[in-house]
């Protein structure tokens, strides 16, 4: 078999040493809270190379609005809630913003932001300030009350 025509071959580099990880997918998610609230457990943490704390979903609680909706998952980073930025604020302040939402809440989310920032293992650790391998990771967790 012989092929006649013009062939174009595209080559890409195999090295990934100089490549940055892809930016996470950003999503705007509107949740209608149910009688069990939003149903999120959050953690504040700062990953390697980050200058500010981020707020991450540690777990989605069964029975809450987030579980019923299905779009939020452990490891997602919450960037804002109803227009209030959650970047660079404490977990306590983030919880305040989340508590004060109405029956419908708008969240800006970086899907799997914890993985992008090297914090995936944080999701499986107890909730307290942690020191590992000489690095300090500020972490606090709060299960948001059911009334959210």
Show the helix and strand layout.
Blueprint: E1 26-32, E2 40-45, E3 54-60, H1 65-69, E4 77-81, E5 84-85, H2 91-99, E6 104-110, H3 113-116, E7 130-132, E8 135-137, E9 140-143
Antiparallel strand pairs: 1-6, 2-3, 2-9, 3-4, 4-5, 4-6, 7-8
Low-confidence segments: 12-16, 129-148
What integer value in Å does the Rg equal?
Answer: 20 Å
Q: State the order of secondary-structure elements, H for helix, E for strand.
A: EEEHEEHEHEEE
Just give the CATH class.
Mainly Beta
Shape: globular
Q: Oligomeric form of this entry?
A: single chain
Number of helices: 3
CATH topology: Pdz3 Domain
Number of strands: 9
What share of residues is helical? 10-25%
End-to-end Cα distance, whole Å, is 68 Å
Structural class estimated from helices and strands: alpha+beta
Organism: Pectinophora gossypiella
GO cellular component, one term: adherens junction
InterPro entries: Afadin, PDZ, PDZ_sf
Protein name: PDZ domain-containing protein
Which characteristics define this entry?
3 helices, 148 residues, alpha+beta, Pdz3 Domain, globular
């Amino acid at each position: 078999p012989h092929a006649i025509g013009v062939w174009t071959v595209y080559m890409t580099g195999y090295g990934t040493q100089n490549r940055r990880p892809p930016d996470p997918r950003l999503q705007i998610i509107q949740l209608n809270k149910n009688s069990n609230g939003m149903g999120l457990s959050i953690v504040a943490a700062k990953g390697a190379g980050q200058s500010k704390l981020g707020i991450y979903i540690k777990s989605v609680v069964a029975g809450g609005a987030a579980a019923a909706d299905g779009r939020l998952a452990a490891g997602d980073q919450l960037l804002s809630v109803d227009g209030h930025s959650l970047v660079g604020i404490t977990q306590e302040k983030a919880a305040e913003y989340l508590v004060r939402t109405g029956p419908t809440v708008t969240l800006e989310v970086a899907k799997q932001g914890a993985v992008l920032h090297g914090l995936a293992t944080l999701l499986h650790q107890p909730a307290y300030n942690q020191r590992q391998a000489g690095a300090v990771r500020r972490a606090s967790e709060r299960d948001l009350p059911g009334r959210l």
